[in-house]
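Recap from last week: sequence in, structure out.
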Amino acid sequence: MYLGRLIAGFVGFIIFIIILVMLFGHGGKKPAPLNPIKPLAEYAQTDATVTFTSDGIVNGDELHRAIRITISANQRQLDVLQGYNPQVIQSKTFINNQEAYTVFLKAIARSGFVAKLKNSKAPADERGVCPLGFRYILTLNDGSDDISRLWASTCGSKVGTSGGAITTLHSLFQAQIPNYQTLTSQVNLSATREQ
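Predicted structure tokens:
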């Protein structure tokens, strides 16, 4: 009788240990991500694009504006978007080359383009957050899927998922577009009524 209880206790203890290992991982190691992000400069020889979108305040659909800058090895594109089902209302494209793209990717990598904000409590979906301010969406896309999609806002450095230097990144993207200020001078990201 005593031996039976001892064996049952031992088996229970082993099952308990197995459950703990399954719950908390194998030796505390995290599994490797399925699709890890390569160093950004390695995307220069691919069809990958990087995008920086400045999304305006939450307002009426006809008033809502966003400015999107997309850079690839072949081109640099500025789009002005209207509404929440964004329609391109203005677009300008410039040619690019692989060496320029490589240097640009290295610059934005050093500024934290794919750096996640540690311990962020912000949702992955930025829509509706910081409604009276701007949201900045940073996307790395391989041609078919987003490899990385982070965002920041003007409502504070903790309101977002990006750990990058947003002001620097914003400036780097704007500098890719000749006459950026002139091309966007009529775009009002904080309109509350038609002008």
